[in-house]
Amino acid sequence: MESELGDIFPPFPTITTPDTDLNGFHSRFSRAYTLFVTVAHVLQSILNDLCTREPLRLGFINGAIQDYFEHSTFKHKYNQLYELFDKLSTLQPSTDWVEFDPSFHYVVEFLMQRIKWEEQDESYNFDIPQGLTEIAQSTVYEIINIYDIDFIPETSLEEWHPSLSNILHVLSIVHEKAIYSEVRQPINIKKSEPTIITQEESKNPYTKPLDHSSKQIRILKIFPGTGSYIRCSLEQRTLGPEAIDMALSYVWGRGERKKCIWIDEAYFAVTERLYEILLKLRDLDPSRTIHIWIDAVCINQSDSEEKTHQVRLMRDIYTAAKQTIIWLSYTLPDATTNPNDFDFVLPEGLEEITVDRYDLCSIIKELQDCPSQVQSIEKKTALYLMLWCCIQNILLQEWWERTWTIQEAALPRSPPIFYFGECGKFQFSFDDMMLAMNMLSEVNELLRQTLHDLENGQEYKPSNALSTMITRANTMRPIRRPLLFYLRPGLARKEMIGEENLHTFDSIIHFTNAYKATNPQDKIFALQSLLPRWLGQLIHINYAETCEDTFTRATARLYNKGGMAVVSVLKLLVETRTDRKATPTAPSWVIDFTFSEAHRFTSDDAKMATHHVTPDGFIFSRIRSHPARRRPIGSRCFATPRSLFCSGIYIDRIWKTDLMNEYKDELHTSLLGFKIGREQRQRRGLGESFTSFSAEASSIVCFIAMISGKVLEGDFLDLLQHRYANIYNGDHSYFITDKGLLGMATTSTRVGDKICLLQGVPVYFILREVEVLGGKLEGSLQHRIVARAALNDTFGDLDKVLDSLPIDNIRIV
User: Fold this and answer.
1) CA–CA separation, 746 vs 732, rounded Å?
2) pLDDT band at 332; cut points 50, 70, 90
3) Is 765 helix (H, G, I), strand (E, B) or coil?
4) pTM value?
């Protein structure tokens, strides 16, 4: 690889120019380039060495670095600068550069602007390629993990930052330790999919295994036929442009495998949902043979090795498919939804509109054909409401909530085809859906303008039906575009979500936190194909490892790249463990990526007393005003498979704590107890409170009831009933600190636990010192995170107190 790197990145050209600014830029870029190539050589050399011992466990990084050098945008940008400086190297100092190239002054202006940015913002790392840094960080993590190295940063966290020079130093250290270390054997698990039909009844169609060293896949052939008997066959193919005629995307569902199809003259169990889809697809043209790729059938789901191999090919599978079918299972709105959001009944006098309310394409055509005259406003308004409700019903379907379905619609070259309604009665393309979403805003604006004209002297008088429809249209909530609409090639809208930001690991984690997956590991694995290929390869897809291992690797990657801010939205694994007494199998700082709806149930968004607010949402809603946003603590942390090293502030210790549900029937007594407990601390002289004990008791009530301070519509007793129900259903706890601070934690806490701020994250953490047989662990003091928390910091000058506290280096295990 060293010779290949030399071909890709030859020595940087030297220049002689009277322009001191340009000379300075060339000098800085040349040094950064030299460092980049040095790290690249060292990294590749280390990987070549260690891959001879552990090729399977480091092969994914080897693939990532090779793809990065060949296809990354850095190479393209580097080549542009290289060509520029290569031209300059041939010129003499006396040459008139502007005459040499008429466009050159624009290039110089660009370079000078870059220099100005560097001077104005020291954090602007123009000459540090982030891509190679991220690959090197993943390499460090895997070496430490494979060889079970207990690595501690030599420098303080204030000096540590993920620059290439630091990464080069760490790489050398861990590589040297790995040479003299034994390989830690991974803890593999064997997974099998549950099925109701026994093995004797359901035969194994996977008698011929796939070649995992190639891009071999299976295709399901559905033979012509009628009736309930579905006859199929499995065919092996090598993945290529012509390998897949059709691919299916659908939600498996939670149903048991109660139905059977015939594959190669043997029974094969499938869910009722898939059985109905196969029947419908076959009956569309009973005379033809269908060749289709379906993950539930074409992948042996009980073979973790094959599943790993096939999931790594998902990008290529859906990109190669000539046609992709998306089957939206039809779900009616439940009792908790507003029926006006999903149903629309035509008023009298509009019988001429005969299109079905679920037929998206017909509604679009009717709107396009509708005359623009004022006299047609009733019809246009009715069609607009029909379109709005139709889209709401489409987006209501479970398919839009699943993690896997994002890539299944984002990757195909041609627009996927949706099947919607009972038995897939209505079809529309992804382009039709985009057109419908755009028409909503266009028609809405047209209606507003027309109504404005009517109110300003037009002779046409609105009917009662039109007035009713107008009233309803004015109450409609804007429809939020799903993430998929920004991921299809050419559809990303920078004004909504930064196009470049969508293609980073931390951003895609953020935007998919509310999506779901049956297997929690798939919340990470399903993201591989949504990232640039080299970046996606750093997601190590392996169904043989535990979910905790997958989440630990993903969490460390997030922390090492950009810090811990994501925990303001996502829970930690320690908060979701069902057995609190069991020994944890993952570090306490590991994120639970399974699912988060904190952003949906915040106290900021609750306008009514009965609106749902969760403790997670309450914590999330307080990040904007959190003191950590005003107190610089440091943004650097370093995560290994065992430990997290970060900067932080110890605020106080817990003096009194109890579970919230212990006071379910003694609401007023518990609230009074908080106040009395704080007064006792003051009277005993055991600590000066940050807040005034003369503050109104209502502040305590508002905090425990998760109110952000604004006036809510509705009865206050209804509010308390709804808010406390959310708290009492879990094991959330309240606590009072030595200095009188009142807080609420996401799990149970103990007396003596520490309240901390970590790495500038706008969330409070509860830390507990770690002990082992014989006392505390050797070396630096270590802690475990036991919960996240919110503090009632409304009163008092907490900012001033935090400014007076020292910043410590903290090790969390």
Assistant:
1) 5
2) low
3) strand
4) 0.86
